[in-house]
Amino acid sequence: MNVVLLIGNLASDVELRELDGGRKRAGFLLAVDRPGADGQADFFRVTIWNRQAEVCDRFLARGQPVAVDGRLRSHSGEDSDGQRRTAVEIVATVVEFLPRRDLKAVGATEPFAAAAA
Q1: Tens digits of per-residue pLDDT, 37-69?
Q2: What class is the 4-115 domain?
Q3: Closest by alpha carbon to 84, among 76, 92, 72, 74?
Q4: Measured in whole angstroms, how far is the alpha carbon of residue 28 from the centre of its chain?
Q5: Among 55, 59, 63, residue whose Cα is nearest residue 12
Q6: Rounded to an integer, what is the distance from CA 71 to the centroid of its chain?
Q7: Residue 45 contacts residue 89 (beta carbons within 8 Å)
Q8: Cα radius of gyration (the chain)
Q9: Cβ count within 10 A of residue 53
Q10: Local structure of residue 14 (DSSP, 8 states)
């Protein structure tokens, strides 16, 4: 079973691209804190498609806390030096917008989800 659930903060702004045929793809970098690691984080490249990509592009910005539900996908290839490289990304099916800490003070506690149709 290939299932991933991550909670973290956007480490980059969302980059939206329109592909041939009108499909849309958005990507962002997600920083996930390591418990007990004194401020260290792991970084994951997240990709989301179509309507969810548009929603993420419109409402998310660097620093926003989110929960990402999806699957792992790996890519292999050679870099410019001829070295074999492998990269892993998260292909999201759901990106749930979590409230920022400062919003809780004014009562905004309902998360918003960009879920797969």
Answers
A1: 788 999 999 999 999 999 999 999 999 999 999
A2: mainly beta
A3: 76
A4: 5
A5: 63
A6: 11
A7: yes
A8: 15
A9: 24
A10: -
